[in-house]
Task: inverse folding
C-alpha cells in the first residue's frame, strides 16, 4: 500500500499505480501472468472526474489484455473487489488477479464537499433531503448506544486513544501520533456527542493485493496467506427502518458466512481489522462480529481487551482513525494488515502468534458490509 | 427490460426497480432465493448524485440480506456485471443472482454535459485535455476506415437504416421508426464524416436478467437459455498507441475467449448483438468478432448480409442506434435480446431458428470489451 495521508503531488491514478507496483513487486509474478484486475473506488467521478479507471489502470501497468472491473460499493468497495476476485478465482475464470483500491480526496478544499459527496450513499427522500450526513448518523448511534447500554463517553473515546497508539507504529498510517484521553474528551463536538477524535480523517491512498488459487500460491511467494472465508450482506437503506440502530444485522450475517466458510469461530481469531470510520462503529462491530456481547464492546476497549496483547486485538494498524480512510482503499488495507500480521512482519505493532484474522468493511451506514477471513497457510 | 427512451417521470432507481421486477416476474423465483444482486451503471454519480446504488436496490426489492455489488465499467458495465455474476455462480458462491443495469440521462439538458461526462473515460492528459469526445473518436475511425478499405459513406449509413428498420418491431426500442438512406445521408455532420444518424441517442432505461447454475434453471423457468461463453479484454487507453485504429484487438481476444469457452465458432452463431454506439463500430466489430474479413463489415451490411434473414443477422433489436443506449443497461439488454431470440419470442423481428448468439459490449473507446455467448438449452 501507499502511505495514507495528505499526498499532495499524487493523483488517483498515481496512487493506484504505486500500490499496484508494490503488490506486484512483493510477489514473484510477471506482467503476463495477470488475467484480471479489480479496482475499488467510490468517488472517482465526483472528486476526480474519471470513469473507467480499471481498464485505464491495466494499460498503465502494462497488463493488457487482462480483464478490468471497477467496483463501487461506497466505503465497502475494497472488500467487494476482493470478494469478486475470490469468486473469479474459485470459479476457474481467473488464475491471477490484482485487486487494488484507492481514493484521492484531500485536493478538495470546499468546506462540506466531501461530507456531501459521501452522503450520496444515504436514502435521498427519507434521509438526505433532510440534511443528514454520515457523521450525523454516527452521532445518533453514539447517543443511542450510550443511553441503551449506560456507556460513558470515555469508553468510546478510549477506542480513538488505542487506535492512535497503534498508528504510531504503522509507517503507512495517516497519523503516527498518540493522543491522550484528555485530548480526545476535550476535542470539538462535531455531531453531539460525537467529537473530532471520534471520526476518521479524509485521506489519500491506495492499497493492493495479489490473489491466486491456493495451490499456486507457492509459485508467487514464500509467505502466502489464505483467504478462507468471505461474506457480504445488506441491511435496510433507511436507518429508521431498523429494529435497533445499535445492531448491525448485515455484519452479524456476513461475518457468520465468513466464519462458516472457513469453519472457524470468533474465539479462534487472533486479531481483527474493523471499520472505525467513527469510533462508535468499532465498539458495535466488535459485538456483532462475535467478540463481545451486545453493549460490551466499548467497555472491552476501555479495559484494554482490544489492545495489542489483549484478548482480541482490534485495529493494530491504527484502524481508519489513525491509518486513515481513503474510501476505496480501506477494505484492501484491512486485509493487507492481516497479511502482515500473519506473516509476522508487523514490527512494533505485531500481534504475537497471529494465526487468523477477520475484517469488517462497512458501506453506507451499515447497509452493505463485507467480512474477509484470512489464515496462515 | 423497461422501454428505452425519454422516460420523463422515472428516476434511476425507478428504472432499476421496474426492470428487476420484470425479470423476477418472468422467473419462478421468490425473494428469499436471491443471494446476490449485481448492478451496472456508469454515471450514477455525475448524472444522478447517487452512490451505493446496489445495496439501495436490494432494499427496494425486498431482497435483504442479498450481497450487493455495483460495477462501473463505462458503457461495458452491463457485460461486466453479467461476467461477475457468472463467476460467482460458477464458483458456488452464489445460487441465484439478479443482474440489472440502467442509466437515467435525459433529464440533463445542459448542452454538451452528457458528452463531457462520457468523455471522462478517455485519457486525461493525452486526449481529453485536447477536447476530444467519443463522437470525435468515432469520426476519426470512420474516416480512417473509409480511406483504408475504400468504403463509401453509404455502406456505413446502411447500418443505421437496417437498425432503424429492426427497431420498428421492437416495442422496447427508443425509436420505432424506419429511416431512408436519403435521410441518413442528408443528416447533419457531427464529427466529419460522422453524421447524426451514425450516432446512438441519449436514452433512459434499464434491463435485468436472472442467473443461476444451469442444473437449477428448470426450477426457475420453462425456457432457460445457457451462457456458455464469457470473455473480457482490455486495449490501450490512448488510441494513438494502437497499431491500427480500425482493429479492435480487445474484441478479437475477448470473443475468442467466449468462443473457446463455449467450444463454438463464429460460423455457428445465429445472430449477434453488437455495440453500435456509432454505426462504424458495428462494421468494425462484425469483422473483429469473426463474421467478416477486415474491411468487409460495412459492405456486408450494405449488401444485406447482416439483416434479419441474412447470413448473420446483427442487432435484430435495433441495436444501440434504434433501441437506445442507457449506458449501464446496454450490455444486459443485448443478452436479453439473445434470450428472446433463442426462446423464439422476438415476434416480427425473430431470427429464424436461432440457436446461439454472441454480444460485443464496448467500453471506453474499445479499451474494455466483453463478449457473452448464449445458447439454447
Result:
Amino acid at each position: 500500500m501507499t502511505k495514507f495521508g495528505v499526498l499532495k503531488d499524487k493523483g488517483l491514478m498515481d496512487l493506484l499505480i504505486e500500490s499496484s507496483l508494490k503488490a506486484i513487486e512483493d510477489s514473484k509474478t510477471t506482467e503476463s501472468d495477470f488475467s484480471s484486475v479489480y479496482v475499488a473506488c467510490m468517488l472517482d467521478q465526483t472528486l476526480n472526474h474519471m470513469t473507467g479507471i480499471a481498464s485505464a489502470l491495466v494499460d498503465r501497468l502494462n497488463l493488457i489484455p487482462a480483464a478490468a472491473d471497477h467496483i463501487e460499493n461506497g466505503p465497502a468497495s475494497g472488500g467487494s473487489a476482493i470478494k469478486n476476485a475470490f469468486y473469479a478465482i474459485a470459479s476457474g475464470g481467473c488464475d491471477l488477479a490484482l485487486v487494488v483500491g484507492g481514493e484521492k480526496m484531500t485536493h478538495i478544499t470546499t468546506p462540506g464537499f466531501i461530507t456531501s459527496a459521501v452522503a450520496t450513499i444515504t436514502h435521498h427522500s427519507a434521509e438526505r433531503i433532510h440534511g443528514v450526513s454520515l457523521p450525523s448518523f454516527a452521532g445518533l448511534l453514539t447517543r443511542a448506544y450510550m443511553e441503551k447500554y449506560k456507556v460513558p463517553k470515555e469508553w468510546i473515546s478510549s477506542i480513538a486513544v488505542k487506535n492512535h497508539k497503534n498508528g504510531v507504529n504503522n509507517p503507512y498510517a495517516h497519523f503516527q501520533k498518540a493522543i491522550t484521553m484528555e485530548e480526545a474528551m476535550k476535542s470539538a463536538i462535531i455531531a453531539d456527542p460525537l467529537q473530532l477524535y471520534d471520526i476518521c480523517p479524509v485521506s489519500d491512498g491506495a492499497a493492493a493485493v495479489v490473489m491466486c488459487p491456493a495451490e499456486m500460491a507457492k509459485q508467487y511467494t514464500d509467505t502466502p496467506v489464505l483467504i478462507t472465508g468471505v461474506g457480504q450482506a445488506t441491511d435496510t437503506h433507511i436507518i429508521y427502518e431498523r429494529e435497533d440502530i445499535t445492531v448491525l444485522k448485515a455484519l452479524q450475517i456476513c461475518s457468520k458466512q465468513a466464519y462458516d466458510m472457513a469453519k472457524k469461530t470468533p474465539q479462534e481469531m487472533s486479531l481483527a481489522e474493523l471499520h472505525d470510520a467513527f469510533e462508535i462503529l468499532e465498539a458495535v462491530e466488535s459485538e456483532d462480529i462475535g467478540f463481545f456481547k451486545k453493549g460490551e464492546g466499548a467497555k472491552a476497549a476501555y479495559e484494554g481487551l482490544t489492545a495489542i496483547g489483549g484478548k482480541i486485538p482490534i485495529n493494530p494498524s491504527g484502524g481508519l482513525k489513525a491509518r486513515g480512510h481513503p474510501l476505496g482503499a480501506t477494505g484492501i488495507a484491512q486485509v493487507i494488515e492481516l497479511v502482515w500480521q500473519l506473516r509476522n512482519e508487523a514490527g512494533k505493532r505485531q500481534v504475537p502468534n497471529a494465526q487468523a484474522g477477520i475484517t469488517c468493511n462497512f458501506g453506507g451506514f451499515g447497509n452493505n458490509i463485507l467480512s474477509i477471513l484470512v489464515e496462515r497457510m
